[in-house]
Amino acid sequence: MSFLNSLISGVSLGSIYAIIALGYTMVYGIAKMLNFAHGDVIMVGAYICFFAVSRFSLPPLVGVLLAVVVCTLLGMTIEKLAYAPLRAAPSLAVLITAIGVSYFLQNAALLLWTPNPKVFPNFFARKVTAPDGTVTDQTGMAFFDGALRVSYVTLVTILVCLAIMAVLTVFINSSKLGKAMRAVSEDKDAARLMGINVNTTISATFAIGSGLAAIAGVLLCSAYPTLVPTTGSMPGIKAFTAAVFGGIGSIPGALLGGLLLGVIEILAKAYISTQLSDAVVFGVLIVVLLVKPTGLLGKVVREKV
Amino acid sequence: MAELLKVEDINVYYGAIHAIKNVSFHVDEGEIVTLIGANGAGKSTTLQTVSGLLRSKTGAITFDGKNISAVAAHRLVQHGLAQVPEGRRVFLQMSVEENLEMGAYTRPKGEIDASLERVYEQFPRLKERKRQVAGTLSGGEQQMLAMGRALMSKPKLLMLDEPSMGLAPILVEQIFTIIKALHKAGTTILLVEQNAQMALSVADRAYVLETGKITLSGTGEELIHSDEVRKAYLGG
Q1: How many angstroms separate the first and last alpha carbons of chain B?
Q2: Nearest-Cα residue of chain A relative to residue B53
Q3: Can you tell me the mean pLDDT for B187-203?
Q4: pLDDT digits (tens, 9 = 90+) for A256-292
Q5: Interface probe, candidates A174, A192, A194, chain B, greatest B C-beta count within 10 A
Q6: A175 part of contact set with chain B, CB < 8 Å
Q7: Is B13 in the A-facing interface, judged by CB distances under 8 Å?
Q8: What residue segments make up the domains of chain B, in order of their start?
Q9: Residue A9 falls inside a structural domain
């Protein structure tokens, strides 16, 4: 039963990685750049939601929506100010800029919100009144006489991840903007000749990725409630790993990579060693890339001559 | 006839390389005009400058009475300019029909179906393969798709960049038959070709580009019989 417990935790953590990985993979697929500031957008989203709910006592759903709106605008602003001017620059310059933006966001958060950890509220607790009148928080469900516990956060995280994947797949395959994104990701100049505004399309990609990052931030901090300015960096790197693992540029790859990474990490923690779990995760990545350099679902990109 | 495209005195650079030197030419409504020349003469560069992917440092490009020298490439489609790029450049991972839809990206949704039907009439092969991913098409089919895609925008001027490149002779014939049919149906065409023989045989007028400069111009008929062109491009 403890294996099943670990598996469910792994799928839940993996769902968060998958949502973050979507942002990496979509931006990479369309703008051909690695946005290393993506992880820190998660952190900003979590802070916005935290302040909205804990300080201004807004309902949780409003807090989440506010975080999504702020992160969407933040992502578009970052793209416009930091990345758009470098569109013709060598990719190394863009990469360094992205790392710079990442540090900028972390330090801005330190300045604004101090390094003191904030305790993120649990939105998914139910008040239960016992027969003797005492009120307790019920945070999950128990099965098999308590041998298997599934928290509401875990359930919501997995469901939200699946919903996002479904909506995004339909969007990319069927909507006009989604098709334009696919066209831009294949060939920017050919897309321009079709009348597609490449800059707007890239900006929309950042908007979607950053909005999803906000949701990931809220889910992450609901599961791991300590919020500090560097909260986003490690999950960001893990999610980037997940994107590469699944095949960067591929949306199903982000889901697969995220889930596998989450499960491997939690199982490694449970059965090998807590300290070594990250080493195991990255070790698996190295092995996968040695065997299949494009990632699990990645396509072989033919270099144009 | 009315002048549809007028290119005046353009100069294009790739970094320090002066690729196009004082090039001027024009295309009248209803014409097929061809730019011929050897590999690297600047034919594609000229087309890309007209379509806004590259910029000229001097001169002006006038299309349908408007100066388009500084208009962004993605806005030119709405003005009625469509380009079939060199190497076809279809979206290989999208289906045939999605490629065609991309061609009509700037047009209202209600008009797309009628245009799709028309393109499928012109290219029955594309209709047979409309659900197929473009990457699985043969070279000739991809060329047809690229042309159909450009026609989806209902262009006033269709610019074709090396449509015969890499195709077997029988397919080259087929593509040129299609070009003639499109012209007959009223499309104005600017054709860039290395296959000078074929290009000159369909063209009303032609320009010869050599290392970035226009060295000769005339009707297709005149150039096909010109000694210089025969020697340089038609194999004696």
Answers
A1: 34
A2: A189
A3: 93
A4: 999 999 999 999 999 998 999 999 989 988 998 899 8
A5: A194
A6: no
A7: no
A8: 29-53+70-233
A9: no
Kindly tell me the sign of the dihedral angle through the C-alpha atoms of B61, B64, B70, B72: negative
What is the ipTM for the molecules in this complex? 0.91
Look up the CATH number of domain B29-53+70-233: 3.40.50.300
Residue in A179, A192, A299 closest to B74 by CB: A192
Contact indicator for A233, A106 with CB cutoff of 8 Å: yes
**A263 inside domain:** no
Query: In angstroms, rounded to a whole number, what is the distance separating the alpha carbons of residues A162 and A243?
Result: 16
Whole-model pTM: value is: 0.90
Using CA atoms in the order B219, B225, B228, B231, what is the torsion angle rounded to 10 degrees? 130
CA–chain centroid gap for A29, Å, is 16
Reported as a single tens digit per residue, the pLDDT across A175-234 is: 999 999 999 999 999 999 999 999 999 999 999 999 999 999 999 999 999 999 999 999
Instruction: Tell me how far apart the alpha carbons of residues A98 and A116 are, in angstroms, rounded to a whole number.
Output: 26
Enter the tokens of residue B186.
Answer: 């009223």
- The total number of structural domains in chain A stands at 1
Q: Within 10 A of A271 (CB to CB), how many other CB atoms are there?
A: 12
The residue range of the domain holding A103 is 15-122+152-256
